[in-house]
Design brief:
The chain is mainly α. The chain has 13 helices and 4 strands. One of its GO terms (biological process) is regulation of potassium ion transmembrane transport.
Length: 256
């Protein structure tokens, strides 16, 4: 799900506005399909670009060669198990691990590292709050550090997961206090953090209250029993019936 798309007015009242992209369902008259597992999709991901930047050959722009490294000295423990758990190839996992160890010799990523990564990729805005929320979504056990294994399992879901897997991950992102429900305040906090990160120059025509308006519309759709919170069941059911959300799944990695 791309809540940052919400900040554009969706003329049809749909949950997700999508500037510059026509939903696949409307453009081609077909239902959303899972994107093919391409290197291009990988290289659009901020976290992958950060990891692989340290392994790129000097002087090359090499978005192609970064995932094709053949001489890899580092190898994560349980590589076969990770390959089974994720949708990355063995070579991709080795390349990701090599970069991960270069950037994080301790084998752990902390929240400050996430903040640094996103401030580099989104210099026009303030990425601090979004990086905090994203880090907490990756940090499943809440111990303040992310191991390589957790990192690639999360990336695999975000970049190559099924619709159901991505929606469950998105629910976890929005559920800030991890109590199993999304409140209106939580949704607004996430949406504002993405808006702040994208920067006011990105959407200069936006009103201050635009995120709140979109959250209000989101909850009218999602909160089926009108109890003021959204459950995982309500979230999955509503999202899977909304073609605009499904088409935007292809673009999910834009702020990951």
């Amino acid at each position: 799900i791309q809540p940052w798309k919400e900040v554009t007015k969706a003329s049809d009242g749909s949950l997700l506005g999508d500037p510059g992209h026509t939903p696949l369902s409307k453009k081609e008259g077909v239902k959303w399909q899972r994107p093919r597992l391409s290197r291009q999709a990988l290289m659009r991901c901020c976290l992958v670009k950060w990891i692989l930047s340290s392994t790129a050959p000097q002087g090359s722009d090499s978005s192609d060669s970064e995932l094709e490294l053949s001489t890899v000295r580092h190898q994560p423990e349980g590589l076969d198990q990770l390959q089974a758990q994720t949708k990355f190839t063995k070579k991709e996992l080795q390349s990701l691990y090599r970069g991960f160890k270069n950037e994080c010799p301790t084998g752990l990523v902390d929240e400050d590292t996430f903040k640094l990564i996103y401030s580099q990729f989104f210099p026009q805005g303030d990425a601090t709050t979004y990086a905090h929320f994203l880090f907490n979504a990756f940090d499943a056990d809440g111990n303040g550090a992310i191991h390589f294994e957790d990192f690639v399992v999360g990336l695999s879901i975000l970049l190559r997961g099924t619709v159901h897997e991505k929606l469950k991950w998105a629910f976890n992102l929005y559920d800030i206090n991890k109590d199993g429900y999304i409140t209106k305040e939580e949704m607004l906090a996430i949406m504002k953090s993405i808006y702040d990160m994208m920067g006011r120059h990105t959407y200069p025509i936006l009103q201050e209250d635009a995120p709140a308006e979109h959250v209000e519309r989101f909850f009218q759709k999602m909160d089926r029993n009108k109890d003021g919170v959204v459950t995982i069941e309500e979230f999955l059911e509503t999202c899977q019936k909304d073609e605009n959300i499904m088409s935007s799944m292809q673009l999910f990695e834009n702020v990951i």
